[in-house]
């Protein structure tokens, strides 16, 4: 994606992440967030910002996914988007009454429990260059659905995630991932494989190799 927009020779080094070595069992994780282990949970974990995060798309899609809960976790900034986020939260609790939780900011030591409770995650951003939140989800080996943006499409080709286009497509794919265990397991394995390919030690080596080649030239 980036290379196509540069008019000179370039080297693209991926954003790194730290693969999680031990994942929390899903039943225990769900109980830790107060949800019956039998209920499938769709989640968003990351900064809860303005409209560019696309959370309305996720909320609308979840209205069509019966029998599943939605968990939204992440901090917010106080500022111009504050009222927008308050209205969004209020609307969510109405249209998804009894099956939505907003957890707010999550401490690092609690993140494995939150990720562990989720059957799949959704990142519906309207635009992005890269997503640290998505990489964190992949590092926890989670099945992820993302909006069809260039940086995400690249990862989809590698089997790390699945993209969607619009509310209808998202709701259909959420249902499919929740119902099709084989598909979900495939996405989880793809997530782990991708996270392993961009773990920080490998990314550091690529930086060193690049800098040495530049100094040597």
TrEMBL record:
The keyword Transferase applies. Residues 28-193 form the Glycosyl transferase family domain. Keywords: Transferase. Pfam families: Glycos_transf_1. GO terms for molecular function: glycosyltransferase activity. One of its GO terms (biological process) is lipopolysaccharide biosynthetic process. This is Glycosyl transferase family 1 domain-containing protein. It comes from marine sediment metagenome. The lineage of its organism: unclassified sequences, metagenomes, ecological metagenomes.
